[in-house]
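quick one, 86 residues, struct below
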Amino acid sequence: MSSHTQGANVTFQVSNMQGQKRAGILKENLEKYVGGVQEVNIDVQNETVNVTYDPGRTDVYNLEAVLKNLDFYIENVEENGMTKAR
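---
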């Protein structure tokens, strides 16, 4: 029996970060409302959102839905080293 302590990782490239306040709202929403989110790192200058999560509890589509609900425009998603345009 193996224990998975390391989560999956995804990076969203967005085009409308608009500052620290908006980034803080996004971070709070991801951590508070999406079960399985382990860590959120947001780079306002480069407009990237990096999320480490438990794939047994959530997935990229749930994370993406939070960004879209907060009116972030997702340009592309990097998951498992693969970049996918949106």
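Strands lie at 8-14, 37-43, 48-53, 74-79, 82-85.
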